[in-house]
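As a warm-up, study this chain.
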Amino acid sequence: MELIFERSRPGRGSDLLPPPDVPASPLPEAHRRAAAPRLPEVAESEVSRHYQAMARHAFGVCDGFYPLGSCTMKYNPKLGEDLAALPGFTGIHPLQPEHTARGCRSVLDRAGAYLCQITGMDEMTFQPAAGAHGEFTGLLLIKAYHVHRGDTGRTVILVPDSAHGTNPASAAMAGFTVRSIPSTAEGLVDLEALRAACGADTAGLMLTNPNTVGLFERDILAMTEIVHAAGGLVYYDGANLNAIMGVARPGDMGFDVCHLNLHKTFATPHGGGGPGSGAVGCKALLAPYLPGSALGGGGGAQSIGQVRAFHANFLVVVRALAYLLTLGNTGVRQAAEGAVLNANYLKHRLEAAGYSSAYPGLCMHEFVLTLEQLKKQTGVSALDLAKAMLDQGMHPPTMYFPLIVHEALMFEPTETETPETLDRAAQALEALLKTARENPQALHAAPVTTVIGRPDETAAARRPVVRYGFEEG
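Now compare it with the structure written out below.
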C-alpha cells in the first residue's frame, strides 16, 4: 500500500475555500515557520481512496471476532453515536456560563447517579480522561484522606501480582511505594500473604474483581476487612465490571473508591487511541477530596483540585447515559450474565478441543489458556497461534498476559457475540491446534493472508520508523 506521501505530487490539491469576507490579518513574522510544512499534495479523490484502503487493512469489531482479553472490544449500539452527534451536545463550549449548559449538566448528573447505583458508591466525577487517569485520581483521593487525618506514614499500596500493569504504575506516580501480593495456585489473591503485608504503612489495596485471570475473588469480604482493620482503604479497578454490573456492587464488597472505563463497559468504542473516560466513584468519606467541577460543585478546601481541563470527555458520558437508558436495570444485568455465559461456553469448547486452561472450572467474563505444554511438545508458541488466528478472520486474544501464566492467551468473548460466532471461533481454533501438532512450521510462518506478514517485532521495537523519510522518498 502506498503511503499518502508517495501519492503526493507538487501543486496538486483540492482547495475550495471561498475568498475571505474580512480584512486579511497575517501572522507576525516572529510567529511564522521558517519553512512551509511538508504536507502531502494530493487530489480529494486520492485522499478518499487512501483512507478507504487504510480502513480495509484494519480489523475492528465490525469486521469479525475480536476476543481481546481484559479490553472488552465489543459491538456498541449505533444509537449512542447518533445521540452523541446531536448539535446541542457537539456545539457546546466549555467556557459557556453554567446556566447555558444545563442540559449537559443534567447528562452528567443523571449518568453519575446511575453509575453510583451500579457501583454502590456515593459520589462520581467524570474528570479523568481514561482508566489509568482514573486510577491516579482515585489514589490521590486515598492519599488526601490519609494526609488530612495526619496519618502520613501510610505510603504503601498493595497490588496483586496478576494486576493490570497500570495499577503499580499509577500508584508510583501518586507517590506510593508498591508492594506485590502473590496469587495462589488457584489464581486468587493469597489471603495470608495479604494479611502479612498489611500494617501501619498500608495506604490501600488496588484490586479488580473479577481479577485479571477472570476469576471472582471469593474471599473479597475478608480481604477488604483485613485492609480496613489495618487502617487502609480499598481501590476497585473497574476494568472487569462487565462481568458483575447489575449483579454485585464494589461498594457492597467493601471498596472505598473505584474507577470505571466508560469506553470499555458503557458503549464508547474502545481502541484506536480514544476517546476514553475513567469516571471515578467514591464513598462519602472520600467525597470532600473529589476534583471540583468546571460546571459548578465540589472543589472545596480539601479537594485534590482539577485533574483535567474543564469537566470531562463529555460525549463519552452521553454515550454511557444512552446505553444505560436503553438497557435499564434488567438489561445491565443481562449484559453481565451474557458476558459470563459466552466466556464459559467458549472456554468449555476449547478445553474439549484439547486446549489447557490456566485455571480450570468456571470463569467470569474472560479466561486464560496456557500453551506452555504445546510449545514444549511442538515448538508452537502463543504468538504463533495468535498470528495464525489472523488468517482465520479473527483478531488474536491478548498474548502473554497476565505474566503469572506462561504462554498465556487471554480471551474475552463479550456478551454481544452470537453462539454461531463462538462456534466458528472454536472450530477454527480446533483446526489450528491440529495443525500445530501435525505441521508446526505452518504456524511459524503465519499470517500469510494479511497485507503485512510477520514482521521482525524486535527490530520494530528497537528501531521504529515513525516518520516519512523525505530524503529517500
